[in-house]
Write a sequence for this structure.
C-alpha cells in the first residue's frame, strides 16, 4: 500500500471516529460506551512502594491498568486532604490517618469484600506478633487507627469492626544504617547517633514526623529523659528533644540531613556519612553497589512504620470494584512475596509464603542463614549463601518495635520547632 | 490581557492575602481574622532566651541573596564584557554564549548531586589537595556549607546576569569607546564613565532576576546546605506540606513585600521602562 493511500485511509478513519463520537455525545449514550473502556486506577503514593513490576503483573492478571502518581510522604497526606478526587487508590502511612480521616475524604473498606481480611497479620489487628508477643505501641500504632465505626465514619473504632481505614500493604521496623568498614567497632545503641566520635559524619532524616521519633529514641538511649509516650509528646518534651538536636547540630554533629531516599543512599555510599537514620531499601541500594552497609539492630528497639491502601470517599461503580480487585490481588501472595524479597513485610503472611521458595522464606522471615545466594526481585545479589538477615527473624524484628511513626496532638508545634532545628 | 492578569495573578494573590489571616488546625483551614500567623515572624525575638528563628531565616536568605547578587554581578559583567568587546567574530560569540548555558543542560537535581564527587570529603578536590601534600585532612567546608550554597547559586544564575548585560553592551556604539580613548581616557575611566552607565539597564534587569530567584529558592539551599541551612522558600514548602497554609501564606506575603522593596529600590537607580 502506498503511503498516500494509507494516509487517506487514516484520515477517513479519523473523520468517521469524530463523526461517531459526535453522534454518541449527541444521543447521550456516552456513559454506557465509556463503561466498556478499560479501567485505569490512579494510585497515589510514594515512589518507594510503586514498583513497575507489580503494576505489570496486575495488568497481566486482570487487565486493569495501574497509573502511578508518585509524590513524597508529606504530599500524599496533603493531596488526600486538599484534592481527594485526584486519585482512585491511596497508599499512605497509618500515621497520616489522624489528618485524613477527620476530613471524611476516605471511605471505610468493607472487610467482607476482602477475601483475606481475617488473615491480615495480628501485628495490625491486635498489636501482637504471630506468636503472641505484644508489640510496643507508642505513637500511631496501626491497631489504634485501623478500624472505623462505619463506612462513612470520621471516627476511629476502639475494637474490630467491619470497616477498615487502610488495608496494610507494607511495613517494616526501621533502625540506624551504619558503614561497618568506616566505624570499625560494634554499634548497639541509638545513642551512638549523637556520639561526638561521629562528629560531622552523622545524619538524621528531615521529615519532621519521622525525624522526631528517631530523635526521641536517641534522647531516651542517652538517658536524658524517658518519655511516657514518644509518639505523643507534650510541648515541653518537644522543646527538650529539639534542644538536644540543636545542641548537637551546633557542635557540628550532622554532615547533612536528608529528605529523599536517594540522598540517604548517596550520603552513605560516598562515605560523607557513616551513621544515619535510614530505610531498609536504601541499605539494600548501598549494598548492591558493593559497599558494606548494615541495618544495625539496636538494644532500644526499632521505630516501625506501616502503609496501607485506602479508598477515596467518592469512588464508585466499576472503578470501586477494580480497586477492591486490586487490593484482593495484592493480598493474594505474588505481591507479598515480591515485597518480602525486598526486605519489607507483607500483610498476609500465609499467601506470601506460598509464593516464595522455602530458602527465601527462611532467610527473610525466619532469620536463618541463607541456604543459597539471595537475589533481589531485579536479579541483583543481596546476600551470599550463609549470611543472616540484619536483625534476624520477623518475630525478632517486629517483636522489638519500640514505637511507631506518629502524628502528635501537638503536631503543629512540633513542625514549627523542627523548622527551628533546621534553621539553627 | 488585563483579564488574564487579574484572573491569574491578582485574584490568587488576594486569596493568599486572605488565607494568611485565617486560622488552621491539623487538617483544615478555618475562616477567621487573626494576625497570629504574622506574629510568628518575630516570635522569640523579644525575650533574651528566644531563638527568633523565623526572622533569622529571613536575614540568612537576604544575606545569601546579596552575596550571590554581588558575585554574579561582577562575574556576569566580566563575562559579558569579554563576549561583547573582546570576541570579534559572531561565530565565536555564539559558541561562547552556548558554552555559558552548559549548567542548564542537565536537571537541577543531577547537577546538585554531581557536586558531591567534586567537593565531598573523598571528592576530587580534597583528594588532589591531599595527594599534593597541601593539606593533611580533607577540607570539610567545601560541601554542605554556606560556601557550597553560594557556589551552586553562582554556577546556576550567573547566566541570568550575562544575558541582559550582554544585550545592553551589544547596543553600545563602538565609536563611543573610541571617542573616549581619543579624549585621553584610560581603560578604567572608559569602563567607569562609558561602559557601566550605558549597560546599567542590563545590570538592573539581571539583578532583579538573580535577587528574586535566590530569595524564593527552596531546593538549592536545601541540597547544597545539607538541609541544615534554612531559607524562607524551604520554610514555606515545609509549612504547606504540613497543611499549615495560613502560616505559609503569611510568609509568602512577607517574602513578596521584601522582594518588591528590593525591586523598587533597583528601579529607583534606573528607569527600566524608559531605557528599554
Amino acid at each position: 500500500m502506498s503511503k498516500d493511500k494509507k494516509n487517506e485511509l487514516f484520515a477517513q478513519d479519523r473523520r468517521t471516529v469524530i463523526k461517531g463520537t459526535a453522534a454518541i455525545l449527541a444521543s447521550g449514550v456516552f456513559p454506557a460506551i465509556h463503561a466498556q473502556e478499560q479501567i485505569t486506577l490512579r494510585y497515589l503514593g510514594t515512589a518507594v512502594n510503586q514498583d513497575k513490576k507489580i503494576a505489570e503483573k496486575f495488568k497481566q492478571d486482570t487487565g486493569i491498568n495501574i497509573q502511578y502518581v508518585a509524590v513524597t510522604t508529606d504530599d500524599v497526606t496533603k493531596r488526600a486532604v486538599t484534592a481527594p478526587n485526584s486519585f482512585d487508590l491511596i497508599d499512605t502511612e497509618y500515621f497520616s490517618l489522624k489528618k485524613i480521616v477527620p476530613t471524611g475524604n476516605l471511605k471505610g473498606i468493607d472487610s467482607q469484600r476482602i477475601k483475606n481480611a481475617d488473615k491480615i497479620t495480628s501485628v495490625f489487628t491486635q498489636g501482637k506478633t504471630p506468636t503472641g508477643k505484644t508489640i510496643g505501641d507508642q505513637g500511631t500504632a496501626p491497631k489504634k487507627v485501623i478500624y472505623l465505626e462505619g463506612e462513612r465514619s470520621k471516627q476511629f473504632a476502639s475494637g474490630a469492626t467491619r470497616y477498615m481505614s487502610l488495608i496494610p500493604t507494607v511495613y517494616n521496623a526501621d533502625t540506624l544504617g551504619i558503614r561497618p568498614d568506616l566505624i570499625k567497632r560494634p554499634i548497639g545503641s541509638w545513642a551512638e547517633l549523637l556520639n561526638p566520635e561521629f562528629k560531622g559524619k552523622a545524619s538524621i532524616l528531615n521529615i519532621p514526623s519521622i525525624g522526631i521519633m528517631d530523635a526521641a529514641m536517641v534522647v531516651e538511649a542517652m538517658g536524658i529523659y524517658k518519655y511516657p509516650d514518644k509518639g505523643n509528646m507534650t510541648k515541653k518534651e518537644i522543646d527538650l528533644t529539639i534542644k538536644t538536636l540543636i545542641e548537637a547540630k551546633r557542635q557540628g554533629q550532622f554532615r547533612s540531613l536528608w529528605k529523599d531516599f536517594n540522598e540517604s543512599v548517596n550520603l552513605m555510599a560516598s562515605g560523607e556519612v557513616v551513621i544515619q537514620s535510614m530505610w531498609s531499601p536504601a541499605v539494600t541500594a548501598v549494598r548492591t553497589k558493593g559497599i558494606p552497609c548494615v541495618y544495625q539492630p539496636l538494644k532500644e528497639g526499632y521505630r516501625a512504620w506501616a502503609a496501607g491502601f485506602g479508598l477515596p470517599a467518592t469512588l464508585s461503580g466499576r472503578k470501586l470494584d477494580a480497586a477492591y480487585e486490586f487490593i484482593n490481588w495484592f493480598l493474594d501472595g505474588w505481591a507479598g512475596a515480591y515485597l518480602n524479597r525486598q526486605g519489607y513485610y507483607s500483610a498476609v503472611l500465609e499467601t506470601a509464603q506460598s509464593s516464595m521458595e522455602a530458602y527465601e522464606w527462611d532467610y527473610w522471615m525466619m532469620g536463618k542463614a541463607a541456604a543459597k545466594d539471595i537475589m533481589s526481585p531485579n536479579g541483583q545479589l543481596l546476600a551470599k549463601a550463609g549470611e543472616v538477615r540484619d536483625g534476624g527473624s520477623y518475630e525478632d524484628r517486629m517483636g522489638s518495635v519500640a514505637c511507631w511513626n506518629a502524628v502528635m496532638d501537638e503536631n503543629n508545634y512540633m513542625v514549627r520547632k523542627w523548622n527551628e532545628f533546621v534553621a539553627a | 490581557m488585563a483579564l488574564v492578569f487579574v484572573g491569574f495573578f491578582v485574584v490568587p494573590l488576594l486569596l493568599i492575602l486572605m488565607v494568611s489571616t485565617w486560622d488552621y488546625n491539623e487538617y483544615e483551614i478555618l475562616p477567621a481574622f487573626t494576625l497570629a500567623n504574622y506574629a510568628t515572624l518575630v516570635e522569640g525575638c523579644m525575650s533574651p532566651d528566644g531563638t527568633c528563628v523565623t526572622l533569622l531565616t529571613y536575614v540568612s536568605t537576604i544575606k545569601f541573596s546579596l552575596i550571590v547578587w554581588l558575585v554574579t554581578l561582577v562575574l556576569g559583567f566580566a563575562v559579558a564584557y569579554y563576549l561583547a568587546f573582546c570576541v570579534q567574530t559572531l561565530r565565536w560569540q555564539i559558541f561562547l554564549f552556548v558554552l555559558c548555558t552548559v549548567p542548564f543542560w542537565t536537571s537541577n537535581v543531577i547537577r546538585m548531586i554531581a557536586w558531591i564527587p567534586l567537593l565531598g570529603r573523598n571528592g576530587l578536590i580534597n583528594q588532589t589537595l591531599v595527594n599534593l601534600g597541601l593539606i593533611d585532612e580533607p577540607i570539610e567546608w567545601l560541601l554542605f556549607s554556606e560556601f557550597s550554597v553560594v557556589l551552586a547559586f553562582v554556577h546556576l544564575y550567573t547566566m541570568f546576569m550575562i544575558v541582559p548585560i550582554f544585550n545592553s553592551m551589544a547596543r553600545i556604539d563602538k565609536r563611543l569607546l573610541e571617542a573616549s580613548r581619543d579624549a585621553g581616557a584610560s581603560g578604567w575611566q572608559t569602563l567607569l564613565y562609558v561602559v557601566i552607565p550605558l549597560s546599567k539597564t542590563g545590570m538592573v534587569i539581571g539583578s532583579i532576576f538573580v535577587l528574586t530567584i535566590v530569595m524564593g529558592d527552596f531546593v538549592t539551599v536545601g541540597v547544597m546546605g545539607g538541609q541544615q541551612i534554612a531559607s524562607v522558600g524551604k520554610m514555606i514548602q515545609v509549612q504547606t506540606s504540613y497543611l499549615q497554609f495560613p502560616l505559609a501564606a503569611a510568609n509568602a506575603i512577607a517574602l513578596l513585600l521584601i522582594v518588591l522593596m528590593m525591586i523598587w529600590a533597583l528601579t529607583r537607580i534606573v528607569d527600566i521602562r524608559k531605557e528599554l
